[in-house]
């Protein structure tokens, strides 16, 4: 969905571009066969309003290399409200320690390793007590190509790191101008960052914001070649669930036509600290109370109220 939002923003469903989107996108069985939970993690019944609940998209960024499935290094839940004046993107750290159906407790990205998107969806649905409607997966190569397609991005970094493994460019605190290779290293880095995977998650969201800004800038929108290149780059590595048809995408495009990058709000899923597990290693401990509140906000389409209190700066 993250990629689709950008494509929508640059008019990716017009003429030739619409044909390219249809030709590029791959469909697969990304949703689970298991029904969403009827009770919350504390055992209380889940009450979901009959209308006004919005739509939940799971976006998975896979750091795949070669023919292997890779790791779900980007896990973002995108909530589109029933009345879409804003969009909320919630990043789930890959080290978040959760219950995985059939596999006990482990890091959340282990769900992807065990059973791909369907098991990851089921894990998140159980964690939050919600229904995930659609899934979209891209890989890090897609991030790189999209960046180059718009001529690079300007990203704000909360902290820096040296040039090793970063496309030959050191990252300094503050604004950085990055090409595709450098942006790829920017979103992958975690070992030199103060909070490891948490810091990397904030970097990934900063990159998404930068890409949204550049893709919807006047310099991009007024350049048909740049639009075509970006649309191609955004969709050539995109896999979506079978229910997300081109017709459904067009409907979402119409609903979201007024959304701009400033209307997209980013946050990190609630965790209470760090710990270690004998099998999983270093883990991020779920803040169960706030996670329950997040699930309730998603079910009742009241994310703005939740983010007013808990949004990560």
TrEMBL record:
Domain Cell envelope-related transcriptional attenuator: 71-215
Any one Pfam family match given in the protein's UniProt record, by short name: LytR_cpsA_psr
Protein family (similarity comment): Belongs to the LytR/CpsA/Psr (LCP) family.
Stored PANTHER family: POLYISOPRENYL-TEICHOIC ACID--PEPTIDOGLYCAN TEICHOIC ACID TRANSFERASE TAGU
UniProt protein name: LCP family protein
Organism: Phycicoccus endophyticus
